[in-house]
Amino acid sequence: MNDVPDLGPVPRRITVSAEQAGRLVAEQFPHWAELPVTAVENGGWDNRTFRLGDDMLLRLPSAQEYALAVEKEHRWLPQLAPALPLPIPVPLAKGSPGATYPFAWSVYGWIDGTPPTFESVADPIRFAEDLADFVAALRSVDASHGPQPGRHNWFRGATLRTYEARALGALEELRGHIDVAPAHELWTRALRAQWDGTDVWFHGDLARGNLLLRDGRLCAVIDFGTCGVGDPACDLAIAWTLLSVDGRDVFRKRLGVDDATWARGRGWALWKTLVSCADSLGEDGADARDARRVLSGILTDRG
After folding, report:
1. How many CB atoms lie within 10 A of CB 295?
2. Which of 235, 229, 157 is nearest to 199 (CA)?
3. What is the DSSP string of the chain?
4. What is the spatial distance between Cα 143 and Cα 59, in angstroms, rounded to a whole number?
5. What is the end-to-end Cα distance of the chain in Å, rounded?
6. Residue 63: closest CA among 104, 13, 125, 24
7. Partners of residue 230 on adjacent β-strands
8. Is 52 exposed, middle or buried (0-12, 13-18, 19+ CB in 10 A)?
9. 14, 109, 166, 196: least buried by Cβ within 10 Å?
10. If we measure between CA atoms, which residue out of 56, 54, 94 comes closest to residue 75?
11. Residue 140 to residues 44, 107, 135, 149: CA-CA distances in angstroms?
12. Residues whose CB is less than 8 angstroms from the CB of residue 300 and which lie 6 or more positions away in sequence, other chains included
């Protein structure tokens, strides 16, 4: 019997305009109807994000699959927030389908900050420590009734084999552009690394776009759409995709990560980066250069 989850077809995303989002607010939350609604630059892929006035934001799923996370976020984020050392989004209200928009949606408080880059982190070691402390606190929350991996979070917390076809497909596309042998070796090692089966909470998508800096320091963690309980190795991918070499060592030591979990975490970073590199072949923009830089770091740091 095949126990590897099926990701299913690519989600059919929809567009949402600021005018449509404003109509949703006016229909369902008339006390906010006079507040301006403006699109957020780089406002997300899984969700369309809009500012509502100065102090709130609207988060509207872009496909049915992403809308599965709305109920989870409203149930769990208010419970997680008090246990965590950094601010996270806490929903203020839940909207319903309307104004030709077909899914449930959310109103959150706005959290100021800017996403980090390799250059904008003021102190890479302090950043790694702060991030490790956040992950440790999240893992310490009682996971006994938390949401198990599923389509609501694209099976984060389940087996890495869920993404094997995508990783190997990207590796084949990159043949001739990179040395595929060490990449394949690291991928195989990640698949063989066993999880002990103890459920813990994880964020599921610790990436640059979901971390916020203020004055060069980590100040908040956002977008918990992929959160859940299960194998926490997915939250280690950030060690290669953003942290410095020294920061990566500090991050691992502060969390006390064993060899098997570290290998799986590197596997999560590897499949994401292989796909990013394959998708950006022939390009020379900042994202393409960052993807190649991260892949080089993963292949150099072989544990």
Report:
1. 22
2. 229
3. ---SPP--SPP------HHHHHHHHHHH-GGGTTS-EEEPTT--SSEEEEEETTTEEEEEESSHHHHTHHHHHHHHHHHHGGGSSS----EEEEE-SBTTB-S-EEEEE----B---TTT-S-HHHHHHHHHHHHHHHHHS--TTSPPSSGGGTTTTS-GGGGHHHHHHHHHHTBTTB-HHHHHHHHHHHHHSPP----EEE-S---GGGEEEETTEEEEE---TT-EEE-GGGGGTHHHHTS-HHHHHHHHHHHT--HHHHHHHHHHHHHHHHHHHHHTTT--SHHHHHHHHHHHHHHH---
4. 26
5. 33
6. 13
7. 200
8. buried
9. 196
10. 94
11. 29, 27, 9, 18
12. none
Mean pLDDT, contiguous 10-residue spans, the chain (303 residues): 82 96 98 97 87 98 97 98 98 97 98 93 97 98 98 97 97 96 97 97 97 97 98 98 97 98 98 97 94 95 71
| Tokens matching residue 247 | 């920061």
What is the pTM for the complete model shown? 0.96
User: By C-alpha distance, which of 103, 27, 106 is closest to 68?
Assistant: 103
Instruction: Output the pLDDT for position 1.
Output: 39
What span, in angstroms and rounded, lies between the C-alpha atoms of 78 and 89?
A: 9
Tokens of 25: 């607010």
Residues in contact with 75: Cβ distance below 8 Å, sequence separation at least 6, in sequence order:
none
163 contacts 190 by C-beta, under 8 angstroms: no
In angstroms, the CA 146 to CA 245 distance is 33
**Token pair 């590796």 in the structure block, residue:** 171
pLDDT of 114: 96
Residues 102, 30: Cα–Cα separation, whole Å = 19
Structure tokens at 109: 């408080």
Q: Determine the residue type at 255.
A: L
Q: What distances in angstroms separate CA 183 from CA 71, 190, 207, 301, one per listed residue? A: 38, 11, 21, 11
Contact predicate 211/235, CB 8 Å: no
